[in-house]
Amino acid sequence: MRVASLASFYRENLRWLGAGFALSFFSSFGQTFFISLFAGDIRAAYGLSDGGWGALYTAATLCSAAVLFQAGALADRIRLDRLAVTVLLLYALAAIAMATGQGIAVLLVAVFGLRICGQGMMGHISATAMGRWFRAHRGRAVAFAALGFSTGEAVLPSIAVAVASTVGWRETWWIVAALLALGAAPLLGWLLAEARAPQGSGADGGHPGLGGRHWTRPEVMRHRLFWGLVPAVLAPSFIGTVLFFHQVHISEVKGWSLAAMAAGYPVYAGLTITASLTGGALVDRLGPARLLPVFLLPMGAGAMLLGAVEGVGGWLLVLALTGLSQGMAQALWGGLWPELYGTRHLGAVRAMATTAMVFSTAAGPGITGLLIDAGIPFPEQGLALGIAALAICGLGLLLGREIRRLGGR
Predict the structure, then answer these.
(1) By mean pLDDT, which of 17-26, 333-342, 361-370 is the weakest?
(2) Using one digit for the tens of pLDDT, what is the confidence trace for 225-236?
(3) Which of 96, 184, 373, 399 shows the greatest Cβ crowding within 10 Å of its Cβ?
(4) Highest taxon of the source (predicted)?
(5) Is residue 307 situated within a structural domain?
(6) Is 106 a member of any domain?
């Protein structure tokens, strides 16, 4: 795509791309990188160990995954503006629970609400909308929407740490609640009020997948290719989540200040953005399957390095490598599910993949937290995570060939 036509694409579709960006950005408050900034305060307030906090986080996230499996299909049946506003108001209530809660039960409910609304539904609505509204330039649309994730990761940690140190961690969650209810909800209600019909779509407004048809969720679940892709879905979420979830623990083990570590988030976000935009262009040009064998290579290398590096500069390198993989993953999955299974039931299909992703983010803190309690610091766990990532790259090579054999790209 020429520069002029690319600029025209962004200009003409700014409303819809902006909606995807905003949904992704406001998901940040339910993402692990944000919640984990308050891990030390939460553990102190509730008397939790690393393993106890990890177990609670795992339980809340598992519950959110179970609900998301069914709730994700709402994106196929309810207008996205109404769905997004409803989710945002529930999201704000969860933030209020974080600000006011006193018992473990309330903390569990608060984390569940943040995870299902933020990490789960906000990102799910964004990716579903981009996959449904765009066809020829779907990779670029998904990549642009994913800039919201990266922007949140770049700017919110430093702001949150500064605000919490000034007004307190509970008061910070009051600010989050107000931002969601009074800022995000009206904005997204307006942006999503007008849907977009993709160019070249059929009379039903959809684009079919493999075999020239729109796959239903039961059909996808019986398809061997979907289950072959599950490890590649799980890996970036698992590794990325535990890396951020245990950042306070890492700072204690390595002797790094949390403020110095937070300064690495712009590096992470910048490379995530670069990889996402580059990956989106490659998805449009070559097809999403081409990314399967390579997208986890940087993250695997970063996980292996974590145990070896000594200075905080090593943390920046780990974040940089992780960002490269996360950016490619955003472009890959945003383009692959519509390519394989069509767009008519995209909300239901994506809900399965998103549920698997959320499940991995639930299992990660619990498993690694228990290993920490057993005397294995998280940085030393990085070698096993890196080997697993490299093995999944080998599987991705085989899966990419199978996708092309079946007529996909």
Answers:
(1) 361-370
(2) 999 999 999 999
(3) 184
(4) Bacteria
(5) yes
(6) yes
Per-residue pLDDT tens over the stretch 149-195? 888 988 898 899 899 999 999 999 999 999 999 999 999 999 988 87
* pTM, full prediction: 0.77
Place of tokens 């002797």: 255
Q: Which of 226, 231, 196, 227 is nearest to 209 (CA)?
A: 226
State the chain's maximal CA–CA distance in angstroms. 61
Query: pLDDT per residue over 93-149, tens digit each?
Result: 999 999 999 899 999 999 999 999 998 899 889 988 888 888 767 878 888 898 898
Secondary structure of the chain as H, E, C letters: CCHHHHHHHHHHCHHHHHHHHHHHHHHHHHCHHHHHHHHHHHHHHHCCCHHHHHHHHHHHHHHHHHHHHHHCCHHHHCCHHHHHHHHHHHHHHHHHHHHHCCCHHHHHHHHHHHHHHHHHHHHHHHHHHHHHHCCCCHHHHHHHHHHHHHHHHHHHHHHHHHHHHHHCHHHHHHHHHHHHHHHHHHHHHHHCCCCCCCCCCCCCCCCCCHHHCCCCHHHHHCCHHHHHHHHHHHHHHHHHHHHHHCHHHHHHHHCCCHHHHHCCHHHHHHHHHHHHHHHHHHHHHHCHHHHCCCCCHHHHHHHHHHCCCCCHHHHHHHHHHHHHHHHHHHHHHHHHHHHHHCCCCHHHHHHHHHHHHHHHHHHHHHHHHHHHHCCCCHHHHHHHHHHHHHHHHHHHHHHHHHHHHCCCC
Q: Give the count of domains, the chain.
A: 1
Residue 209 sits in a domain whose CATH number is: 1.20.1250.20
Q: Tokens 């305060």, residue? A: 41
d(CA 38, CA 165): 11
- Is residue 3 in a domain? no
Residue with tokens 């998901």: 27
Instruction: Please give the C-alpha separations between residue 138 and each of 23, 30, 92, 217, 327, in angstroms, as whole numbers.
Output: 17, 26, 31, 21, 15
Domain contains 2: no
**At 205, is the pLDDT very low, low, confident or very high (cuts 50, 70, 90)?**
low
